[in-house]
Amino acid sequence: MSKDIRAIIGENRAKFSVESSQSIRQVVDYMCDKNVAAVAVCDGDKVTGVFSEGDLLRRVVHKSLDLDKVSVNDVMTSPVYWISMGERYEVAKAIMVDKRLRHLVVMDEQRNFRGFVSSRELLEADLSDSRELVGKLNDDYYEHQFKP
Q1: What is residue 10's three-state secondary structure?
Q2: CA 100, CA 97: separation in Å to the nearest integer?
Q3: DSSP E strands: which ranges in the chain?
Q4: HSE of 129 in the Cβ direction (CA atoms, 13 Å)?
Q5: Can you give the pTM of this predicted structure?
Q6: Ordered per-residue pLDDT tens for the chain, 148 residues
Q7: Cis ω on the peptide bond leading into residue 79 (within 30° of 0)?
């Protein structure tokens, strides 16, 4: 029943990332174009932070920062919390609850960025597991209850 992160996000998840030197406006334009709520902030191949809608609200809009003059590196969330593709989704939920995250970076076994898993996806996995368990319990009950 318990799924790993690979089963939730698949092998070919789109990887939305930006360079740390990009301006906030460039990053927000990219996020709007791709219709995503969070992006990985990278220095070359290394993920150094995450920039999300929450960061935009709390660290940019609330502080009236200039979108064209401030780089995403100055307002991103860091350190980066991540999970490996093979880890169970319950571990991702625990990290996200503990760190108050809505998006968690996913890395493969070589620690390459593979995308994000969202709290919505983990909720859907929970619902799927719950439905599966209820179905099994019902099947077991009726099998034993009405067995001749």
Answers
A1: coil
A2: 5
A3: 17-19, 38-43, 46-52, 82-84, 103-107, 113-118
A4: 15
A5: 0.83
A6: 568 999 999 888 899 999 999 999 999 999 999 999 999 999 988 999 999 999 999 999 999 999 999 999 999 999 999 999 999 999 999 999 999 999 999 999 999 999 999 999 999 988 877 777 676 666 666 666 666 6
A7: yes
Give the type of residue at 1. M
Rg (CA), the chain: 19
Measured distance CA(56)–CA(53) in Å, rounded: 5
Please, are residues 116 and 105 in contact by the beta-carbon 8 Å criterion?
A: yes
- Residue 137 DSSP one-character state: H
CATH class of 5-145: alpha beta
